[in-house]
Amino acid sequence: MTCHNGYMIEELEFIEQLQNIKRLISVSPQKYTNIHVLKYIDILIDLHQKRVEQFEQHMEKEYAEMHAHSARSDKSEHKESKNKNH
Asked: Which of 18, 26, 28, 75 is deepest in the core (most CB within 10 A)?
């Protein structure tokens, strides 16, 4: 999981860098000349944010499945110990 987390940190840092570039362009005197660059940066930001969101959803799903599996294991262990006592 550490590998995935490292990858997501890189994704988030890249998004931040793109946003910084966008801010720099938007305050430059040639702002309107670079309108296509701004649109391209928006597309890149959106693409990378979607990757982060997909990763987060995957991790939430994985956590929920792990938690549900753990709860089922606890219940079955409880039943087994209860049956042994009788």
From this structure: 18
Q: How far apart are CA 68 and CA 29, in angstroms?
A: 56
The model's confidence at residue 21, banded by pLDDT at 50, 70 and 90, is: very high
Domain that includes residue 21, residue range: 2-85
Residue 18: CB atoms within 10 A of its CB come to: 20
In order, the DSSP letters of 32-71 are: TTTHHHHHHHHHHHHHHHHHHHHHHHHHHHHHHHHHHHHH
What pLDDT is recorded for position 20?
93
Asked if residue 7 lies in contact with residue 58, where contact means CB atoms within 8 angstroms, the answer is: no
Burial of 13 (0-12, 13-18, 19+ CB in 10 A): exposed
- Of the candidates 33, 9, 35, the one whose C-alpha atom is nearest the C-alpha of residue 22 is 35
CA 44 vs CA 18, 32, 48, 61: distances in Å: 8, 19, 6, 26
